[in-house]
Amino acid sequence: MPEPCPVPTTTPPNPARPPASGSALRGATLKHVVESQQFTVPLLMELFDRSRGMEHVVARGGTLDYQNRIMTTLFYTPSTRTRLSFEAAMHRLGGRVLSTEHAGAFSSEIEGEQVEDSIRIIGGHSDVIVIRHTAEDGARRAAEVSPVPVINAGDGNGGQHPTQALLDLYTIYRQRPLDGLSVAIIGELDKGRTARSLAYLLAKFDRVKMFFVSPPQLQMKQDILDYLDEHDVRYELESDIDRVIGEVDVVYQTRIRPERVRDMAGRNNDGRENDGLKRYAIDSKVVQRMKPDALILHPLPRTVELDKSVDADPRAMYFRQAMNGLYVRMALLTMLLDKEQAARSAWW
Amino acid sequence: MPEPCPVPTTTPPNPARPPASGSALRGATLKHVVESQQFTVPLLMELFDRSRGMEHVVARGGTLDYQNRIMTTLFYTPSTRTRLSFEAAMHRLGGRVLSTEHAGAFSSEIEGEQVEDSIRIIGGHSDVIVIRHTAEDGARRAAEVSPVPVINAGDGNGGQHPTQALLDLYTIYRQRPLDGLSVAIIGELDKGRTARSLAYLLAKFDRVKMFFVSPPQLQMKQDILDYLDEHDVRYELESDIDRVIGEVDVVYQTRIRPERVRDMAGRNNDGRENDGLKRYAIDSKVVQRMKPDALILHPLPRTVELDKSVDADPRAMYFRQAMNGLYVRMALLTMLLDKEQAARSAWW
Amino acid sequence: MPEPCPVPTTTPPNPARPPASGSALRGATLKHVVESQQFTVPLLMELFDRSRGMEHVVARGGTLDYQNRIMTTLFYTPSTRTRLSFEAAMHRLGGRVLSTEHAGAFSSEIEGEQVEDSIRIIGGHSDVIVIRHTAEDGARRAAEVSPVPVINAGDGNGGQHPTQALLDLYTIYRQRPLDGLSVAIIGELDKGRTARSLAYLLAKFDRVKMFFVSPPQLQMKQDILDYLDEHDVRYELESDIDRVIGEVDVVYQTRIRPERVRDMAGRNNDGRENDGLKRYAIDSKVVQRMKPDALILHPLPRTVELDKSVDADPRAMYFRQAMNGLYVRMALLTMLLDKEQAARSAWW
């Protein structure tokens, strides 16, 4: 009796060894998306070119030719917005979606099964897997055994969220040259998945300067600072938004929970009293001190750290940023699926 | 650098100001579906015409031409049946579905985010949003900021469930002229979303009379009664099913939880002893006293208030009623999407 | 006024009376899939022929012509993997999917509604229903009232999981003639839905011998043994894997929770000490004593009872087995939907 027709697969490259920054291999290295530092500048430029194209596809209400491709969203911890953004992207490409919004609670993995077995099985049923795992190395472990591309949609608490960083960077890129940018990254940076992933990406560009603005005890972790030192990227650690807000091109605001900044209560540079939170929150007053062409980004959801009074400011980019998530994820999916398609064709 | 291509949108009309009943603007006023009283008679007739057409589409196993349109079901509190009915409707139109069955538990909104931000983002990713929110004004708040049509799939405890009322009315309309109807609406009417929404719709037609049958402490709330008074619609408040069951054209039964009618135990008009519940429940004996051509409706799910012995009675309409939900929701989606399509075409 | 167009239905046959084994009516008897013993050998052969074809459809990345058909997965208790396998199957056929991953928690059925009402309603909205119910007779009750085909995706604790058994059998069939097989079925057999369903299927073939390997207190229940006695099928009850592992053609390993075999600690036949679990677990040492062409199956997920060191062994079939689930479920869906299509065509 003949063997069953195997699903064509290619050996996944080890994503633990990302190619050196600046590699000229456009697209050739993108098998999985595990961490933002794996993206080279040429790869980013290819992604952004494709994202521009996707803006037109969506605006015309069309879809592309991926009607037989299946994407699985495998979320061990729920994130309605990120999941729906990926799923909308796949649908706008004309593709199909398998979805689980709470695999952590709803699967037998809680009884001891490993993510590797789940991925081997689901990888046989779909053409690309979008995973949000609770462990910091969850996405990497998935990529190491998956027969199909894996995209990290956020892992662990201090892990990464590379597609968020890609859409953040694309939002800046659509408005501004990336070389020479000065960027304030504000919030609870020690646990800031999106801040961490963005720092890695910004470091790829020339003459960038980053200001990490956070209470000292919540500052950016040493691994990121070491990476920036290694790559000769300039940065400063700040504990007060007032000292940087007027001189940066981009303000990247992230979540701040009031209970984590309570002991920062005191007096601002300008003499105003504050309750700790005020030192890091952005409202219509803070915005007045920004450059007239500054960009205000936030990965959302927001609570107290970004006031609704800012929404009407033309510098507020955060809803456009969310919209860009659709275009960037569409573009990323095509890069991964086209490659897989080529492998599949070669196999037959 | 040029601006990104914006998603074409139109300014949403303020749904807090529904057009006057009887407006001749067929379809022109339907941007969102927030509450049943926003429907005019001509709009209802257009909806029902389209619903008839959908019966044929489904019976032939076909789909329509909405293959590039995406509907998001955003349910903050789960309702499997209502969600699946909307999703089936979108699929039968040939469209695509993004789904979350428990956004309340699975999103960061519990951490303080407002529904407005979620809607702005999801509205950029899909062409229509079906929302079930926990707050009574959740759907209205969503509609006020959404770039795409919003449909209220039930909000709050004493709020509305307008598409349920539309399918209820369509079920009657398919069997009976709506003018001159006498209708008994039975159950825990104080918390009856479906009963409330239906009362608003019935009030649009001539010479309708409603009997609200409920223990006095669970009766229909004053806001509905004021609305009916204002529009010169006849109604009576009753506490015993026996006094109306024999003279109405339509019996609209809704949920009754035994613990809420326990103190109604006593003796029926006909001398039968009952346990309170019996005063409001429908079984094969009660059915015998109905008019031979009466219609029995129930929004389902049912428990003790509608006995299975009634299922075989030709007057039992409730399973057909559930099926009509598919047709009415298909029709409603086409009315909203066709309008959005027109706006989109005009924009380009 | 004319009657609404009813959805064409055919009276469901009573699945409580499966046709006699060996029936020559190929396909004619498959209206619902409730339990594995309802499959005759000719029906199994038709299913396996179709499954072979599906391997080619999937490998070529194509889909079939079911683009207007809707499958609902109605899972009262979550099982991410089984659900995704069915949904992938429907998508690979070109079809559409309505999904609920936790109807038990998310529906009003917990408030007292019966599965029958849910099925009547959902059956009006979709073309086939895949149900996982908590009660042992949940799938049968659903099939008895459903206007469309119902597939049992696992019911109760000691119930059945017939599609798992079908894909298990297909995995063996692809490698080996089924007549004359000797099969060791290992694990907590008293609660083993998959083991029970497989035993029924294997009993259909000639000269099969089964070894049920389990601690005596967790052995296969009497109803299965009675069925095998009645059909003259050979079996033995064993409590130690060592006594059968070297002579069987197929090792069907299933879940073993360590706490249930703790009191089996002692000494193996070969004198090795063990902790109870070792008497039933498979690792690279146990595998050495198997026949060189034995097949190792496991329905997955696995934990301690099947060591990862076995994965590289060419006899390990369990990931291929999971993949076969896709092909068999695609084939099964076509058999049910083609039949429904024929009924629909006849009706019009």
Percent in strands of chain A: 5-15%
The quaternary state of the protein chains shown equals: homotrimer
Give the class of chain A from helix and strand content and strand pairing.
alpha/beta
The CATH class of the largest domain in chain A is: Alpha Beta
What is the level-2 CATH architecture name of the largest domain in chain A?
3-Layer(aba) Sandwich
Radius of gyration of chain A, Cα only, in angstroms?
Answer: 21 Å
Spatial order of strands in the largest sheet of chain A: 7-6-5-8-11
Q: How many structural domains in the coordinates of chain A?
A: 2
Total helical elements of chain A: 10
Any idea what the CATH superfamily of the largest domain in chain A is called? Aspartate/ornithine carbamoyltransferase
Measured as a percent range, the helix fraction of chain A is 25-40%
Instruction: Detail the poorly predicted runs of chain A.
Output: 1-27
- H/E order of the elements of chain A? HEHEHHEHEHEHEHEEEEHEH
Shape of chain A: globular
Which fold name fills CATH's third level, the topology of the largest domain in chain A? Rossmann fold
Question: Which sheet architecture does the biggest sheet of chain A show?
Answer: 5 strands, parallel
Largest interface: A-B, 36 and 37 residues
